[in-house]
Each structure stands twice: as structure tokens, then as C-alpha cells.
Design goal:
This protein is α/β, with parallel strands linked by helices. The protein contains 14 helices and 24 strands. Helix 1 (22-30) packs parallel to helix 7, helix 4 (99-106) runs parallel beside helix 6 (164-175) and helix 5 (125-133) packs parallel to helix 6. The radius of gyration is 21 Å and the shape is elongated. The structure holds uridine-diphosphate-N-acetylglucosamine.
Length: 417
């Protein structure tokens, strides 16, 4: 199993290019199931989750090729299964994104239930209730969810909580339903807005993406399209947190500052100096990092996917800070590992109190999930001595060439196989 060896401390400085957003690429790829023409996607990151989605689509009858750095997805003739098997879903919960498109296009889908995962129980009840509101019949059997509908009909649905992939599933299904669908309490993440742009480019009619209410006029068919994926705000944000934490000076290229606003606002409060110009964000870390409390929340709140990295930063702040995780339960698995590196963190349910600053010292630590891995890598860069981060396969699910990007910024990170 691959691991990272990091020799610290290093100050991150220089410029780094943002990769395309994994979480925007996954629904965009699933959208290839909605038409019988090719979909050409630019800036899809080369990370493990994208490979997994590619394999799932292959299984469902969509072939893929890389042309001039773009991903071309071409649906083949029918006769392919309408099923997402357990082997694929268990490694990536986002496989559930094929549910809506398969149902809308083929009238049937069978997807393995994702089950629990390291960051808590993550049900898909809202995806299913939403599809039912469009006329689907839902049944659960043998660990699989099966949905059927001869024709989806436009309807009204209010999400009990904003769910990102749930909203995306419904957007895709409603785009091929008969009539108008009104969705309320939708997720408002930039990835939702990106998916709406793609679907509208395929001929769909979606209004209100980025707001709580979306109105979707169903179409009889959608066509192929070309689309460039937005920059990954979580990946980019990770490097900007690293810049602040190591009192560094990092310029992130190709990123959208508006998408990163919740983080940038927070880093400014921590004392970082932030310069925004079109297509680039420069962050210079302060000599003294000010502690700030934080609560994660759906967009436009502070993203749960940056919570672990932010906790690493707070271990270096001058004083006490408190982080509340409200989106997922059990998402503090990085805390005990940070403590093994010298941090002083007290976890109580969904809240963690971090007493800074404590010098971090290198240690062997274990990555438990995607974002926790990034937190430990940042801690390793800031820590004195050698850190080994085990189980880097979590990191490889979502960070493109992280060791190369960090090396470019001056960190001593190597991958050991
Ligand atoms: C997406 C992101 C993930 C991010 C998360 C929250 C992708 C591929 N993944 O995950 O990186 O951490 O958003 O920003 O885009 N919930 C239910 N019932 C449902 C659906 C969700 O109770 O049917 C709950 C979840 O358990 C969680 C909350 O709603 O507590 C938000 O989850 P959701 O937005 O659905 O996360 P994902 O879409 O899986």
C-alpha cells in the first residue's frame, strides 16, 4: 500500500494549478447516460474516483477515451445492464449518481445501497423520495435499491435537508421527465451550478441552480455537449490552508475565488493576507495565526470537506478554537492522529476544541478517509521531523498528484510504494 514520507517543517511557497473538481466531474460523467450522443468533458482530474465512475459507466454501456486532455464519453447501443454492482458502489458512494439518469433514460435502475462509510451513516432516502415524487416505484431488496417508471412525470419535491448528490440525481431525472418539476431546499454548491450548466448545454431547461428552488422543464431528449469542469475548491482550498499554516506564500491558479469565499473569509480572519485577481488567488500566511471557531454547513457555509484541513491549521493558532461538524457525524477521525503528532484536541460528540499552538512532531499516522488524509499531509509538512502517512489510497481518490504539487511548493514529500 502506498504511503507518503514527509520531512518537515517546510514553508509552502510558489504557485500551483487547481485541478478540475472531482465532485463536479462525477455527476457530469453520470450525465452521459442521459443521451445517445458523446459528451466531451474538459479538466476532469485524474483521480481514483473518476476511474471508478469510468468503470461503472463502462459496465452500463458508456465507453470512454481521452482526447487532447479531454474525456470523451460515448454511449453504446442498448443491451447493457441497468445495474450498479456492490463492488463498485462500496468503494465510492457517488456511484449512486447513476440512479436518476438510468431511471429517466431506461425506465429502470438497480443500484447497490452504499451502506455506512468511514465518515458516518449516509442514507439516500432523499434521492429515493424525490424520484418517487416524479412517479418512480422504489423497492429495496438484497442490499439493492430498484427504481422503475415507464415515464417520469414532473412533480414537486422538497428535500428534508440539502443533499448534494440527491439534488444532482433529481436534476438529471427531472430533465427527461414529462412536464415541470419544482425542487425546494436544494443544495447550492458550485458543483450543482456546474451540473446545471452542463445539462442546459445538453438541451435541458433548468432554472435556479445555486438557489434553494429549482424549476426544471422536462425534455423528450437531450443531446451531446462539450463542457469544461470547474476548478476543485476543496483541493485548491487545501493548498491555501497549507500556505496559512506554514506562514507561506501560495498562488492558486485557475481557481474561482467566489467558490472559495467561505474559506477565504475565514483565512482572512485568521490573519492571512489574501489577494484576488481574475483566475488567481494569492494567500500569505501571518506570523501569528489567530484562532477562530468554525461550524461546517451546506454551501454557502464552510464546507465539511475542508474541516479536517482547517483543524490542522488551528493546531498552530495562538489560542483555543472550537470546530463543530454539523453535516456528517463521525468526521473527526483525524483528531486522534493529529494528537499523536503533538496537537491538543478535545473531542466531544460533534465538537472539537483545539488548544494551540503546539509544535507538531513527525510520526507515523493513518489516513482514514479522503479529507482526513489531506489534513495529515498538511500536518506532516508543518511538523518537525519525519512523518509517514499510511493508506494514501484514500488521498488518491480525490487529489491529483498531490505529492508533485507539494514538491513544487517546496515541501519534502515522497511517495513510497
Ligand atoms: C457530497 C460530496 C461530499 C461532501 C458532501 C457534503 C460528492 C460526490 N460528494 O456528498 O464530498 O462531503 O456532499 O458537502 O459530491 N443525507 C440524508 N439523506 C439523503 C442524502 C443525504 O440524510 O438521502 C444527509 C447525509 O447523511 C449528510 C447530509 O445529508 O448528513 C449531506 O449529505 P450529502 O450532501 O447528500 O452528501 P453527498 O452528496 O453524499
Amino acid at each position: 500500500m502506498d504511503r507518503f514520507r514527509i520531512l518537515g517543517p517546510s514553508r509552502l511557497a510558489g504557485s500551483v494549478e487547481a485541478s478540475g473538481a472531482k465532485n463536479a466531474s462525477l455527476p457530469a460523467m453520470a450525465a452521459s447516460l442521459l443521451s445517445d450522443e458523446p459528451l466531451v468533458l474538459g479538466r476532469v482530474p485524474r483521480v481514483r474516483d473518476i476511474t471508478t465512475m469510468g468503470r461503472l459507466l463502462e459496465h452500463l454501456g458508456v465507453s470512454r477515451a481521452h482526447e487532447d486532455g479531454r474525456l470523451v464519453l460515448t454511449p453504446r447501443d442498448n443491451g447493457n445492464p441497468d445495474e450498479a454492482p456492490y463492488e463498485l458502489v462500496k468503494t465510492m458512494r457517488a456511484s449512486v449518481l447513476v440512479l436518476g439518469p438510468l431511471l429517466a433514460r431506461r425506465g429502470h435502475a438497480r443500484v447497490s445501497l452504499p451502506g455506512g462509510c468511514a465518515i458516518g451513516v449516509r442514507p439516500i432516502d432523499q434521492h429515493l423520495a424525490g424520484l418517487e415524487a416524479l412517479g418512480a416505484e422504489v423497492s429495496l431488496e438484497h442490499g439493492y435499491v430498484e427504481v422503475r417508471a415507464r415515464h417520469l412525470l414532473g412533480g414537486r419535491f422538497r428535500f428534508a435537508m440539502p443533499t448534494v448528490t440527491g439534488t444532482e440525481n433529481l436534476m438529471m431525472a427531472a430533465s427527461l421527465a414529462r412536464g415541470t418539476t419544482v425542487l425546494d431546499n436544494c443544495a447550492r454548491e458550485p458543483e450543482i451550478v456546474d451540473l446545471a450548466r452542463l445539462l442546459n448545454g445538453m438541451g435541458a431547461s433548468i432554472e435556479g441552480a445555486g438557489d434553494e428552488r429549482m424549476v426544471i422543464e422536462g425534455r423528450e431528449r437531450l443531446h451531446g455537449a462539450e463542457h469544461r469542469i470547474i476548478a476543485d475548491r476543496i483541493e485548491g482550498g487545501t493548498y491555501l490552508i497549507g500556505a496559512t499554516m506554514t506562514r507561506g506564500d501560495v498562488t492558486l491558479l485557475g481557481a474561482e475565488a467566489a467558490d472559495l469565499a467561505p474559506l477565504l473569509h475565514r483565512l482572512a480572519e485568521n490573519g492571512a493576507d489574501i489577494e484576488i485577481s481574475p483566475d488567481r488567488i494569492r494567500v500569505r500566511g501571518p506570523s501569528e495565526i489567530r484562532p477562530r471557531d468554525l461550524q461546517t454547513a451546506p454551501h454557502p457555509g464552510f464546507p465539511t470537506d475542508l474541516q479536517a484541513q482547517y483543524m490542522a491549521l488551528m493546531t498552530q493558532a495562538q489560542g483555543v478554537s472550537e470546530i463543530s461538524e454539523t453535516v456528517f457525524e463521525n468526521r473527526f477521525q483525524h483528531a486522534p492522529e493529529l494528537m499523536r503528532m503533538g496537537a491538543d484536541i478535545r473531542v466531544d460528540g460533534g465538537r472539537a476544541q483545539i488548544h494551540g499552538p503546539n509544535p507538531l512532531s513527525g510520526a507515523q499516522v493513518m489516513a482514514t478517509d479522503l479529507r482526513a488524509s489531506a489534513c495529515l499531509v498538511l500536518a506532516g509538512v508543518a511538523a518537525r521531523g519525519e512523518t509517514e502517512v499510511l493508506r494514501i489510497y484514500h488521498l488518491d481518490r480525490g487529489y491529483e498528484g498531490m505529492e508533485l504539487k507539494l514538491q513544487k511548493l517546496g515541501a519534502h514529500v515522497e511517495r513510497l510504494r
